[in-house]
Specification:
Strand order of the largest sheet: 1-6-5-2-4-3
Largest sheet: 6 strands, mixed
Number of helices: 13
Order of helices and strands: EEHHEEHEHEHEEHHHHHHHH
Radius of gyration: 25 Å
Bound molecules: ligand AR6
Strand content: 5-15%
Helix content: 40-55%
Amino acid sequence: MPLQIVRNDITKMKVDAIVNAANTSLLGGGGVDGCIHRAAGPKLLAECRTLGGCQTGSAKITGAYDLPCKYVIHAVGPRWLGGSHGEREQLASCYRTSLALAEEHGCETVAFPLISSGIYGYPKAQALKVAVDAIQDFLLEHDMMVYLVIFDRAAYQISEKLFADIAQYIDDHYVDAHTDSHTRRLQQQALFSEEPPMCSSVLPEYMDDMDDILEFPKGRLFARASSLEDALAQMDESFSEMLLRKIDEKGITDAQCYKKANIDRKLFSKIRSNRLYKPSKPTAIAFAIALELPLEETKDLLQKAGYALSHSNKFDIIVEYFIRQKNYNVFEINEALFAFDQSLLGG
Ligand code: AR6
């Protein structure tokens, strides 16, 4: 996953470079700046003294000394003055300059705090959006693993309305599913008491239309497939094949698809070159989102990788919510998944 949002203390990140939310003097301060200087030791300040400060919206790079990374990139975010003083552009410029510096120094992994969102007072939700947009733009053209490190829970709030809508959606569907599954369990128990174990009510949904190859209910699957080889020869389009077909049908390039899915190039190549590659569920869903598939097609694609969307877990319900809203922005979906403590989409 090229952009990953994690909850951590940035000084603990084992990456090539961490970014500091510094001030124009580059001589240390409070917040994350203080944490980084304490963890790096006094040699960091000594090097910073040689840099001659830094302008707002820009960044400079130093060694990392006692920190577990190789470099510290000191970025100077804007103070929030109400939003009409070029704050957004200056903040975006911090991310762009830092990423360019990281690339110049051969960094493959970089971790950012939410610059300006503490002492400098930038509203956290807006600071997050600027960060995600700027990093996403950079990743469209470059290969890098970027972590956005969120320190405190309060720093990460999706809008109250969205949170309430999703909570309501989960509530409605989660309850339904649990009521349904209770009823289904009772029905299944009743069936088990009269039928042999292999009965239609316990077959997975995807076997519904396999009547022609099932001899049921005597319990012999694939009865008309004369041998295992015949059965294997009848294998369907695989996940990889369906994915590549859909990419062609949408008229987009492979890179447009995997970047939009927040999947890195290497993982995509593996999937492309191995027709039987089995992706993780978050990866499979990320591709469905990148392809902007409606719900039924999303389910088809997932099924190719052996997964389903169910109403018995929050992750699935949140994904379904976004697909029904036709919101196919992986990063916005990830913000919501993060807010509900679920795993994120991507590779
Ligand atoms: N790891 C990750 N994030 C952190 C950590 C940490 N250890 N500590 C704080 N944060 P701030 P600013 C988060 O105030 O707003 C300094 O004095 C924090 O929750 O560190 O850009 C500088 O010298 C917040 O979301 O930076 C400047 O004078 C985010 O990091 C001024 O503060 C940024 O908060 C810069 O203010």
